[in-house]
């Protein structure tokens, strides 16, 4: 991610009682740990080397003692600290900075730096206050974390160790040191490529067949034996790792064989069967923690109260289904989640919470969930969660509001009861300068509009979901006005040789531009782009819109944005999809607004889109796509009069994760009377073995190669035949597939 560095040199005053002693020395114990010595180096780095001295002998007044020193043990108690908590204690003469655990002492140093005015808003945006002599404070701060493990799966902490340490966060590297295997491990412990052909009975029975891409048959003792053997071998390669995941794959295909169903009845549902299996694994590895998933079909606790996790079993509880429009504790839609959370907390205190904080289908859609972050973390903490994993866009991707959201989460993961309003007021002012009040007003306006709409805020949603709510055209007019004010009030000065505040504002505005583009293309082109009405010259309008989309592409390139969605769609691919949509909408099409007759009905609820209505589909099958579940598309277009044709094309959506495949065969036919049909072209398609990559696939035929171009036709017929069933490689093998079709283009 290409974000230029800028330092915000501000003069800030520390809100502490100050004594007259100036800091003259820094002391670290002779037997200091490497991390304590690192903490000293960081302190000296930020507080200017020239005014501090490192020594290992006793000092006079005006000393900062770092780590476990004799002065600390003599004057202050540390028995209330736990995990990687820290102490900042000053008696007006000297100051002690100390922390427990591996990184507690560096955390104390960074917390002290924040007390005297330093800030790290992002890895490239720091506040470095002008301090002329540091006075020893009279203070006593003990701080313990709300959660022992605190990971935000975002770009910043994983590309800047300083940012992670400053904000007391764990990273992918920390997770890899802790976990030998991490989630959805059935496929790794019993790989289908190795075992399915010889032992299909080890895999889940679904719809009368064993699933290659499903779950394991947990009632089969041979599965337990082989899984434990392979797990032991894997553990032997990394004996230092403490946690090992034995957990269901990322699908709903629990085994439905008679033995597994019988176990479900005994142990309290599929979760009970899973827990019974995992407990057996855990008893074979008593010196390790075996982690498993309370996720999707295993989210609820076993209904049999006798089935409880072993002491060395960790429950990874997931909130993937929850809406983010209201706090979980107050959301009427989330009563079942609250019950599941409370049920698990009564069974065990070994819970790892997997929460979700971005919109995965559209990383760059404005996602106003900031108001639920604190109450949700408080709810998890209240229910005994000790480990938190906040899934964002992963270590190498960025999203809308990443700078704001990551900072806020870092503060709350350390202290769920922090005064977040005060913390974020400081952030908006320090990070955006005079533009901060307008950025906050945009976020507050969005949040209020979301709550007022009563709509669900879904982590797998799209901008169009909020077209009548917080992303309505009326709301966009408000946001645009506020962005103009933000631009006027953003500081323009360059600090030293670095970048201005404008970069932060540009980053924020890109999310609005993404939503605007998506809504303009799929809903109201002229309204969202502020252009003249559609009665204007269509060629001019098309050029104008494509220019706007290309400007967005330039922004994403210069901001270093790698992808727009979890599924890996790049900005370029996204823009190509929008551009193709515009060309379908304004380009030549003799079929536009012509009568269409479906000889076989589309499948509800995807039966309302038109095939000649001038609205082409985008990378969202729920809007402007016509769907057929296990059935053939058979559409007839009536031109009203005989006409001469050159080519015809039709596009299909491809997204196997949602059971959507392209047709195996597509046939094109022409007629003068809609009774006798002449073939005009026939194509065979091959579906790719790709699960979660969406794409739009087009079939096109040139009539000049198939029929006499001098013969006029009145009717065109398009027949698209889906695969007979979902293929064996797919987790829903044997089920009926969907096909989705959009605008038919005739030239």
Give the topology.
Layout: E1 6-8, E2 17-22, E3 25-28, H1 34-46, E4 54-55, E5 63-66, H2 70-75, E6 86-91, E7 95-99, H3 104-115, E8 119-122, E9 125-127, E10 135-143, E11 149-153, H4 155-159, H5 161-166, H6 172-178, E12 179-181, H7 186-189, H8 192-195, E13 205-206, E14 209-210, H9 221-237, E15 243-245, H10 258-267, H11 270-284, E16 289-294, E17 313-318, H12 335-347, E18 351-356, H13 370-382, E19 387-391, H14 402-414, H15 420-432, H16 436-453, H17 473-489, H18 502-522, H19 525-529, H20 538-558, H21 571-586, E20 595-598, E21 626-629, E22 633-643, E23 647-654, E24 665-671, E25 678-684, E26 695-702, E27 713-721, E28 738-746
Parallel strand pairs: 1-9, 3-4, 3-5, 5-7, 11-19, 12-15, 15-16, 16-17, 17-18, 18-19
Antiparallel strand pairs: 2-10, 6-7, 6-10, 8-9, 13-14, 20-22, 21-28, 22-27, 23-26, 23-28, 24-25, 24-27
Helix pairs in contact: 1-3, 10-11, 13-14, 14-15, 15-16, 16-17, 17-18, 18-20, 20-21
Main-sheet strand order equals: 2-10-6-7-5-3-4
Q: Give the class from helix and strand content and strand pairing.
A: alpha/beta
Strand % is 15-25%
The biggest beta sheet reads: 7 strands, mixed
């Amino acid at each position: 991610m290409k974000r230029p560095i800028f330092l915000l040199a501000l003069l800030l005053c520390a809100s502490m009682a100050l004594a007259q002693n100036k800091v003259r020395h820094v002391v670290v114990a002779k037997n200091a740990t490497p991390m304590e010595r690192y903490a000293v180096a960081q302190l000296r780095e930020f507080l200017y080397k020239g005014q501090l001295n490192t020594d290992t002998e006793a000092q006079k007044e005006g000393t900062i003692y770092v780590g476990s020193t004799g002065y600390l043990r003599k004057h202050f108690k540390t028995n209330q600290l736990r995990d990687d908590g820290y102490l900042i204690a000053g008696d007006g003469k000297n100051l002690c900075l100390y922390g427990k655990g591996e990184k507690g002492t560096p955390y104390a140093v960074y917390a002290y730096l924040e007390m005297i005015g330093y800030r790290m808003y992002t890895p490239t945006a720091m506040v470095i206050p002008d301090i002329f002599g540091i006075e020893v404070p009279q203070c006593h701060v003990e701080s313990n974390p709300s959660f022992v493990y605190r990971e935000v799966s975002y770009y910043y902490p994983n590309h800047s160790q300083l940012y992670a340490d400053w904000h007391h966060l764990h990273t992918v590297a920390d997770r890899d040191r802790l976990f030998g295997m991490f989630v959805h491990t059935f496929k790794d412990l019993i790989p289908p490529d190795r075992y399915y052909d010889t032992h299909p009975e080890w895999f889940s029975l679904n719809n009368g067949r064993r699933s290659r891409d499903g779950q394991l048959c947990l009632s089969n003792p041979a599965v337990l034996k082989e899984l434990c053997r392979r797990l032991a071998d894997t553990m032997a390669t990394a004996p230092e790792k403490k946690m090992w995941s034995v957990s269901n794959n990322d699908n709903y295909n629990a085994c439905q064989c008679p033995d597994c169903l019988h176990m479900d009845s005994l142990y309290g549902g599929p979760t009970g069967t899973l827990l019974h299996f995992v407990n057996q694994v855990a008893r074979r590895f008593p010196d390790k923690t075996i982690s498993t998933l309370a996720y999707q079909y295993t989210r609820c606790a076993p209904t049999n109260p006798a089935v409880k996790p072993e002491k060395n079993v960790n429950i990874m509880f997931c909130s993937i289904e929850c809406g983010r429009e209201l706090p979980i504790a107050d959301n009427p839609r989330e009563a079942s989640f609250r019950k599941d959370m409370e049920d698990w907390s009564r069974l065990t205190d070994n819970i790892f919470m997997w929460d979700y904080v971005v919109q995965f289908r559209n990383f760059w859609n404005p996602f106003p969930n900031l108001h639920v972050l604190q109450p949700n973390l408080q709810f998890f903490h209240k229910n005994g969660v000790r480990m938190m994993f906040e899934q964002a866009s992963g270590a190498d991707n960025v999203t809308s509001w990443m700078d704001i959201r990551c900072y806020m989460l870092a503060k709350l993961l350390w202290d769920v009861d922090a005064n977040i309003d005060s913390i974020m007021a400081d952030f908006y002012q320090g990070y955006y300068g005079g533009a901060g009040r307008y950025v906050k007003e945009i976020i507050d306006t969005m949040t209020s509009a979301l709550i007022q709409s009563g709509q669900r805020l879904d982590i797998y949603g799209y901008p169009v979901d909020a077209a009548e709510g917080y992303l309505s055209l009326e709301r966009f007019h408000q946001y645009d006005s506020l962005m103009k004010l933000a631009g006027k009030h953003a500081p323009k000065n360059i600090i030293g040789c670095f970048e201005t505040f404008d970069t932060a504002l540009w980053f924020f505005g890109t999310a609005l531009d993404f939503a605007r583009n998506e809504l303009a293309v799929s809903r109201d082109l002229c309204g969202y782009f502020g252009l003249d009405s559609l009665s204007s010259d269509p060629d001019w309008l098309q050029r104008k819109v494509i220019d706007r989309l290309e400007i967005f592409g330039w922004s994403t390139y210069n901001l270093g944005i790698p992808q727009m969605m979890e599924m890996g769609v790049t900005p370029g691919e996204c823009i190509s999809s929008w551009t193709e949509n515009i060309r379908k909408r304004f380009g030549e099409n003799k079929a536009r607004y012509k009568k269409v007759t479906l000889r076989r009905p589309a499948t509800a609820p995807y039966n309302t889109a038109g095939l000649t209505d001038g609205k082409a589909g985008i990378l969202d099958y729920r809007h402007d796509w016509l769907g057929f579940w296990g059935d053939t598309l058979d559409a007839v277009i009536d031109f009203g009069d005989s006409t001469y044709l050159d080519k015809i094309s039709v596009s299909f959506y491809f997204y196997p994760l949602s059971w959507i495949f392209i047709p195996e065969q597509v046939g094109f036919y022409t007629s003068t009377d809609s009774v006798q049909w002449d073939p005009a072209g026939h194509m065979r398609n091959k579906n790719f073995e790709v699960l979660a990559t969406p794409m739009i696939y087009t079939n096109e035929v040139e009539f000049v190669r198939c029929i006499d171009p001098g013969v006029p036709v009145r009717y065109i017929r398009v027949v698209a035949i889906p695969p007979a069933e979902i293929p064996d490689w797919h987790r829903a093998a044997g089920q009926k597939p969907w096909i989705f079709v959009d605008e038919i283009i005739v030239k």
